[in-house]
Amino acid sequence: MTRALFIIDVQNDFTEGGALGVDGGAAVAAAISAFLGAHAADYSVILASRDWHDADNDNGGHFAAEPDYIDSWPAHCVAGTPGADYHPALDTSRVTYHVRKGQGVPAYSIFEGRTDAGSTVHNLLDEHGIDAVDVVGIATDHCVRASALDALEHGQRVRVLTDLVAGVAPTTSEAALAELAHAGAELALSDGSATEI
């Protein structure tokens, strides 16, 4: 089995104090860094995604003055701003590929993004012979969920490391994890033990 790690949207705007801050986001950033310190060698490739939205438009209706927090949101992770930066507690030195998504359009899944060189995540997984993906990051009930579902759709064996994710709300995060398990993802802790939902 050749495994990749997806680090989803561990950005300032998605952690405490950010435009769409998630409780526990900073702790997840630090925990992912500690995990990488011990386990980076377990992965053939490590991909980290960031929302990277345009400043001069509503990004296909993604930004709204009166957001519904389902399909529309306050402005966040605008390209080149501090809010779009990785959280400082996240060590990105072991990241193989950086993926930007949401440039002018709504985007939740890492598969909707591209590297600076223009590569898609699907192509990168194929190029490296990846058949299994671990998923960590923010937010459990939105971009982690979408990325894990897309990985399953692309034929990957998917494991969500539930102690390395943070969600917007407990109920929607639990529902997302249950949906992912039903779709075929494995839920596990970062020490390899199974997660109960």
UniProtKB/TrEMBL annotation:
Its pathway, per UniProt, is: Cofactor biosynthesis; nicotinate biosynthesis; nicotinate from nicotinamide: step 1/1
Q: Which InterPro entries match?
A: Isochorismatase-like_dom, Isochorismatase-like_sf, Isochorismatase_Nicotinamidase
Domain Isochorismatase-like, chain residue ranges per copy: 4-188
Q: Give, as one word, the top-level EC class.
A: hydrolase
For the keyword Hydrolase, the answer is: yes
Record-linked SUPFAM superfamilies: Isochorismatase-like hydrolases
Extract the coiled-coil ranges from the record.
Answer: none
Q: Which UniProt keywords apply?
A: Hydrolase, Metal-binding, Pyridine nucleotide biosynthesis
* Keyword set includes Cytoplasm: no
Which segment of the chain is annotated as a signal peptide?
A: none
Q: What is its EC number?
A: 3.5.1.19
UniProt record similarity statement: Belongs to the isochorismatase family.
Its recorded name reads: nicotinamidase
Species for this entry: Leifsonia williamsii
